[in-house]
């Protein structure tokens, strides 16, 4: 498979941070799998159909590793989510081993027990919003809620000092950048070194946290080395705050761009929050890219022959808007049932942090409009620039919505 100038190049132009690029729907009408060029300029297959995306997650002939990594297409120049990961011969066994080690730390029961503390942390963020409110009633929701709450939660779960948040915020931003060349890889190395130092601290004084759990696991499994621990912990810290932060931002935008949605949730937060959160998860698409996989064998997918080693980009955003699965797919419908979205992937790749993310989102959106019933946007959603230079997307120049806290 070779790149050609007539193939569309990711990321596609989108109208605003809430809507995905119209080109995704155009391409899906051509077929669930189409040839594209990645932001790095390499050839890849883009998968936009719901069933096709789900099948890749359950097909062992696809993985994150590559049979010849030096020949692999790259998604971007970012240091994460953009190139082959793991050993081709052992990837699936290693993935299963890591999940067995981590799943207990993120179990539904453990997260349910954590829910009450998440509410306390959220209340603290709401207090900060009150204190930060300017004389004109404006406050940056991202700076006082969307960013700090997930960071507080994941720091506590992993055992990371909250006072180090500015360090890993900068490193997270840099390693997800697609426009700083070697600087992204250097940031990942710094991030891993930070986690390695933290692991050394946990060896001397272990706690009841995930990094301490991983340190203990090393005693039982010497093959789980320090580099493995550091990279895995860095990935958990990055994913644990970056993705949830983006979804709080986008969820607020979905609810505040149509005040009837806000008011319906405010009128019955306990009854409606589950459906609201699931629809936020389905529709929110901070990144215009997708999940990278490589074919480990020749595979037929969606009527297309994919050769061994070809890159495959799974567009979760497009799959979650597949009208063959979701009627009126572009509409925000909290009453949608069923809502079997793929925002947390599927099968053996289902996100181990899904329960944690759902808990945080439910706590936020069950409480936000009870605390601030007149909350509204201070800027139009079209004024929020879509970031295309980060693999996780999001909006800028503000990272999230500026809101008006004055009571209506």
Highest CATH level, the class: Mainly Alpha
Helical residues, percent: 40-55%
Q: How many structural domains are formed by the residues?
A: 1
Low-confidence stretches: none
CA-based shape: globular
Characterize the biggest β-sheet.
Answer: 5 strands, mixed
CATH topology: Cytochrome p450
| CATH homology superfamily | Cytochrome P450
Main β-sheet, spatial strand arrangement: 1-2-8-5-3
Which percent range describes the beta-strand content?
A: 5-15%
| Corresponding CATH architecture | Orthogonal Bundle
Number of strands: 12
How many helices in DSSP terms?
14
Briefly note the structural class of the backbone: alpha+beta
Q: How do the helices and strands follow one another from N- to C-terminus?
A: HEEHEHHEHHHHHHHHEEEEHHEEEE
Distance between the termini: 57 Å
Give the integer mean of the pLDDT values: 91
- Alpha carbon gyration radius: 21 Å
Question: Can you describe what's shown?
Answer:
The protein contains 14 helices and twelve strands. The longest helix has about 30 residues, at about 225-255. α8 crosses α10 and α12 (about 270-285) packs across α14 (about 355-370). It is of the alpha+beta class. The protein has one domain: Cytochrome p450. The strands form four sheets. A five-stranded mixed β-sheet has the order 1-2-8-5-3.
Give the SSE map.
Blueprint: H1 23-30, E1 33-37, E2 43-47, H2 50-58, E3 62-63, H3 91-102, H4 108-132, E4 138-140, H5 141-146, H6 148-158, H7 165-175, H8 182-204, H9 210-220, H10 226-256, H11 259-267, H12 269-283, E5 291-295, E6 299-301, E7 304-306, E8 311-314, H13 316-319, H14 354-371, E9 376-377, E10 385-386, E11 395-396, E12 402-404
Parallel strand pairs: 2-8
Antiparallel strand pairs: 1-2, 3-5, 4-12, 5-8, 6-7, 9-12, 10-11
Helix pairs in contact: 4-6, 4-14, 6-10, 7-8, 8-9, 8-10, 10-14, 11-12, 11-14, 12-14
